[in-house]
Amino acid sequence: MALEIAKVEAILRGFAILLLVSTVCLVGLDSQTKFVIFYEKEVTYRDLSALLVLVCVDAGAAAYNLLQLISRWFLSAWISKGNLKGSYRFLSWGCCLLDQLAAYITFAVHSAALEHSILVITGAE
């Protein structure tokens, strides 16, 4: 049962890494070109501060998930050799806390980037 949970966690973390990296690539490599009277203006993610933060946080979240995936793999190999004695409760709670922190920060940044983008498109009164 524990091996199945570890496999599911690895698959979910891999899927999260794939989605976060694809978001970084889509937002980071996209640009819009608009012809304004006599010159052409190209807009990238650097022109909106919320999108710049979105790219940085998504890249950080993907790196965090990759590090968690690698550390869990090494930790499970280390535990199986019997090097760690005692309860794993604090280790599990610490990983859970870090996962929740990463998820909430990523969600907050996505919400802020969406709100900022909508305000740029529609304008504010």
Task: Tell me what the structure shows.
With 125 residues, the chain is mainly alpha-helical. Pfam families: CASP_dom.
User: Low-confidence segments, ≥5 residues, pLDDT <50?
Assistant: none
Mean of residue pLDDT values: 82
Q: What share of the residues does DSSP label as strand, in percent?
A: 5-15%
Shape: elongated
Q: What class would the helix/strand composition place it in?
A: mainly alpha
- Which value, in Å, is the CA radius of gyration? 20 Å
The level of helicity is over 70%
Strands of the largest sheet, in order across it?
1-2
Per-chain topology:
Elements: H1 2-29, E1 32-36, E2 39-43, H2 49-80, H3 89-122
Antiparallel strand pairs: 1-2
Keywords:
125 residues, mainly alpha, two-stranded antiparallel ribbon, 2 strands
Summarize the structure.
Helices cover 75% and strands 8% of the residues.
